[in-house]
């Protein structure tokens, strides 16, 4: 049955998460479909940032150890609050660094090449920064990245076949680094299965959770994932440049971080100022320098909502919204040359949908003129993320209808088909 407005209104009325929309600062007269790139500000996140400023204002240096949220323990506290989102033990997650710096840290720790194993496997569709970090560690250790980084090829240019991942896990591989969800096509990998197979071959596995944490439930601990890292400014709404997170499985707590710094110390010992590094006995050991308090503070308020609702519920709504959106695209846009490139099954679809069109760059500009905020990715991909916390079914519907009008009237033709500086 075709989707109509009555159905859309009914889904919105029956949506038990709809009250959370009011907690966000929605952009005026706009439909925001870009929560997978930069989530919106919530009132709670704003409040937690303001209260941290207040703590500095009123306490000066004593803010480190006093006040509602003493800064000295904030990274651990946020790690504990993030743990349920990724299925971790409290001590396995720490909020620190950025996605890229955390990967550098984790590679410096977990990439231990020996006579047999020197290669790092990743994929050719991975985010460039992850690839640069892998190339760096190989160069630092004296290995040529061209030979020692194995990038699994995509057969269709958008997704990676599980078989090809498995086939790449040869005897000379030390590490496997993959995104949980590919940032362009939104393909979700079977994290548990791939981790298990890699382990059977003696390979350590790390996952980049940037496009899944906050939209998909995980069980990193039970799945025996060695390490993971992600950013908090996408689905988790912690703000531009918000501090990232990392997970290290407790079975690795005996390891010494590759990049040591005093904030990785045992907290009781840190201020002894000894020149012998006494590391924290948990993922806190992977911190390097003084935490960026104001870039962490919004996460406090933002995470409360995720913990109130629980990831399972958010995933159900997210999957339903993306499914409805795909159906609407097929129903309304079939004559305009769009191709849906994200996997369609619930088990391998992330939180956004991805559509391909040769005029994608300028179609996105036309959408913006109509106050729909999409996300363009080179060369010709439009990503649309209906976010369970703050988008409505009506948003998804209106986006597709506006897109249809743009195509019917060829409104995109007045723009150039090139990306903007930040796209
Ligand atoms: C967003 C994103 C990044 C960004 O890394 P930063 O260090 O936070 O700038 C890295 N990898 C992936 C897969 C991403 O989606």
From TrEMBL:
Q: Does the keyword Hydrolase apply?
A: yes
Where along the chain is pyridoxal 5'-phosphate bound? Answer: 99-100, 127-130, 208, 211, 233, 262, 290
* Keywords associated with the record: Hydrolase, Pyridine nucleotide biosynthesis, Pyridoxal phosphate
Q: What class of enzyme is it?
A: hydrolase
Q: Which Gene3D superfamilies match?
A: Aspartate Aminotransferase, domain 1, Type I PLP-dependent aspartate aminotransferase-like (Major domain)
Query: Pfam family example for this protein?
Result: DegT_DnrJ_EryC1
| Highest taxon listed in the record's lineage | Bacteria
Stretches that traverse the bilayer: none
Which InterPro entries does the UniProt record give?
DegT/StrS_aminotransferase, Kynureninase, PyrdxlP-dep_Trfase, PyrdxlP-dep_Trfase_major, PyrdxlP-dep_Trfase_small
Cofactor dependency:
pyridoxal 5'-phosphate
The PTM N6-(pyridoxal phosphate)lysine maps to 234
Q: Which SUPFAM superfamilies match?
A: PLP-dependent transferases (SSF53383)
Subunit info here reads: Homodimer.
Cross-referenced PANTHER family: KYNURENINASE (PTHR14084)
Please identify the protein, giving its name as recorded: Kynureninase
| Gene giving rise to this polypeptide | kynU
């Amino acid at each position: 049955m075709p989707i109509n407005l009555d159905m859309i209104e009914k889904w919105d009325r029956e949506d038990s998460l709809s009250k959370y929309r009011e907690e966000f600062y929605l952009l005026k007269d706009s439909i925001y479909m870009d929560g997978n790139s930069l989530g919106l500000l919530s009132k709670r996140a704003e409040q937690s940032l303001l209260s941290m400023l207040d703590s500095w204002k009123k306490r000066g240096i004593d803010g480190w150890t006093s006040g509602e949220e003493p800064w000295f323990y904030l990274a651990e506290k946020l790690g504990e609050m993030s743990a349920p989102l990724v299925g971790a033990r409290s001590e396995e997650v720490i909020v620190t660094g950025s996605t890229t710096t955390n990967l550098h840290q984790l590679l410096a720790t977990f990439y231990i090449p020996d006579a047999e194993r020197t290669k790092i496997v990743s994929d050719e569709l991975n985010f460039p920064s992850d690839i640069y970090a892998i190339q760096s560690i190989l160069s630092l250790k004296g290995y040529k990245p061209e030979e020692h980084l194995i990038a699994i090829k995509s057969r269709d240019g958008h997704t990676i076949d599980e078989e090809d991942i498995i086939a790449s896990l040869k005897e000379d591989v030390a590490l496997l680094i993959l995104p949980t969800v590919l940032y362009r096509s939104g393909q979700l990998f079977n994290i548990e299965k791939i981790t298990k197979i890699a382990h059977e071959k003696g390979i350590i596995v790390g996952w980049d959770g940037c496009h899944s944490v906050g939209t998909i439930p995980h069980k990193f601990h039970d799945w025996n994932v060695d390490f993971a890292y992600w950013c908090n400014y996408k689905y988790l709404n912690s703000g531009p440049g918000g501090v990232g997170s990392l997970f290290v499985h407790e079975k690795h707590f005996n390891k010494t971080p590759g990049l040591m710094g005093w904030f990785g110390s045992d907290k009781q010992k840190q201020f002894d100022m000894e020149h012998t590094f006494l590391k924290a006995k948990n993922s806190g050991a992977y911190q390097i320098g003084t935490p960026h308090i104001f870039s962490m503070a919004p996460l406090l308020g933002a995470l409360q909502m995720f913990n109130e609702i629980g990831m399972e519920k958010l995933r159900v709504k997210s999957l339903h919204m993306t499914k409805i959106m795909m159906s609407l695209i097929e129903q309304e846009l079939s004559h305009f040359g769009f191709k849906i490139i994200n996997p369609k099954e619930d088990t391998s679809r992330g939180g956004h949908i991805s559509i391909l069109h040769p005029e994608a760059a300028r179609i996105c500009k036309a959408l913006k003129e109509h106050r729909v905020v999409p996300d363009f990715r080179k060369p010709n991909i439009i990503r649309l993320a209906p976010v369970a916390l703050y988008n409505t079914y009506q948003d998804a519907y209106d986006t597709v209808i506006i897109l249809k009008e743009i195509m019917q009237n060829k409104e995109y033709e007045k723009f150039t088909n090139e990306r903007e500086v930040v796209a």
